[in-house]
Amino acid sequence: MLRVHFTAGDMTRVRFAPRPSPVPELHAALLMLGAPHEELLFGRWRGRLLRTLPGAAEPLAQLVPGGTAPRFLDVLGGTREEGFALIRAARPEVVRSELERVYAGQGSVPPRVRALHDGDAAAWGALDRAQRAAYETVLAPVWPLVQDLHRAEFTRYALTAAERGLAAALGAVAPGSRLRGGVWEWPASPTAREVGEVRLDGRGLVLLPTFHWRGGPLVQDLPDRPVVLTYPAGGGIPPMPEPRGARGGAGGLSAALGRTRTEVLLALTEPRTTTDLARRTGISNATASAHATALRAAGLITTTRTGRSVHHERTPLGALLLAGGADRGAPPGPWTRRPAHSARPRRRRR
Fold first, then answer.
1. Fewer beta carbons below 10 Å: N end or C end of the chain?
2. Dihedral class, residue 176 (left if φ above 0, else alpha if ψ from -120 to 50, else beta)
């Protein structure tokens, strides 16, 4: 369980990141590539990235032996350039101590990591190129969608905080968590990285949603800085580039669901009211409501009522259906380790 301890001053220093931060989002995605996950929900996303992630990104994999990343990668930055510059500006003694920490008990250290430890300029150049190559493959195709998802999450948090207060807003960030006696308690997660007790001590807290990580909270707890808590948000699976021609309403999905229901499902890039769905798809409110009922009965969307408002949202199954199903034929890459029982290669489908 994660326990975040607030002082009285920290209660007024909780803020929600106003926009997504590219570097933490990138690192969350790369961690997700090597994390245990459901093949049905994440197989296609993982397979696509492992097929397209260039070899130039390999130095990043070498920085996270055993799934533990050095803390000098824990930076924010409003743009990727700011984030990359903050990593490069890490103090040499911090870089050395963090690399020694993550490689303790991990066996031999790769030459590239030794060179970073020694402050070699060429090694830092290779790391910078690795960051850029990974960003172009992993985040660039879906960054507009990440921005849309972040705005929706920001609005949800702000409305909850304004209507019901900070405790309710924090509870909405992490369902099952609670703020009591100045301590925010997170429920245990089977995939959570061990964090334990976090004491803000007047530094404040920044809440940053990530749309690529499905494990427990990721905490940046650095001296003399606000604590940054990155938490999983979104529809349950990482964002995927929109399939070509999806907006045209053609293809197998339209044949199975019907063109209008497919358009309704496509319109749910974020929770929407029935009126908003009707407006976006060019149908009447009654027709939008009827199609939403059918999609809900199929388990593709959920519907929640808040006061007089009704909001519809895709389920992970609905998002998976739009993504076109899981791809189980991805080859292993530098961010994964093949389990012992899967040594026999699978035959590719033609």
1. C
2. left
The DSSP secondary structure of 38-55, one letter per residue, reads -HHHHHHHHHHHHHH--G
Residues spanned by CATH 1.10.10.10 within the chain?
246-323
Q: How far is CA 266 from CA 144, 215, 241, 275, 292, in A?
A: 16, 26, 12, 15, 12
pLDDT tens, residue by residue, 93-148: 999 999 999 999 888 899 999 999 999 999 999 999 999 999 999 999 889 888 88
Q: How far apart are the first and last CA of the chain?
A: 46
How far from 225 is each of 24, 47, 248, 327, CA to CA, in Å? 16, 37, 48, 41
- The SS3 of residue 131 is helix
Global pTM reads 0.68
42-60 tens-digit pLDDT? 777 888 888 899 988 988 8
Six-digit token string for 50: 């492992």
- The gap from C-alpha 9 to its chain's centroid, in whole angstroms, comes to 29
Among 107, 109, 90, 84, residue whose Cα is nearest residue 27 = 84
Q: What is the CATH number of domain 246-323?
A: 1.10.10.10
What length is written for the chain? 350
> Residue 342, exposed/middle/buried by CB under 10 A (0-12, 13-18, 19+)?
exposed
> Nearest Cα to 194, choosing from 33, 64, 5, 2?
2
208, β-bridge pairs: 230
Cα–Cα distance for residue pair 312/309, rounded to 1 Å: 10
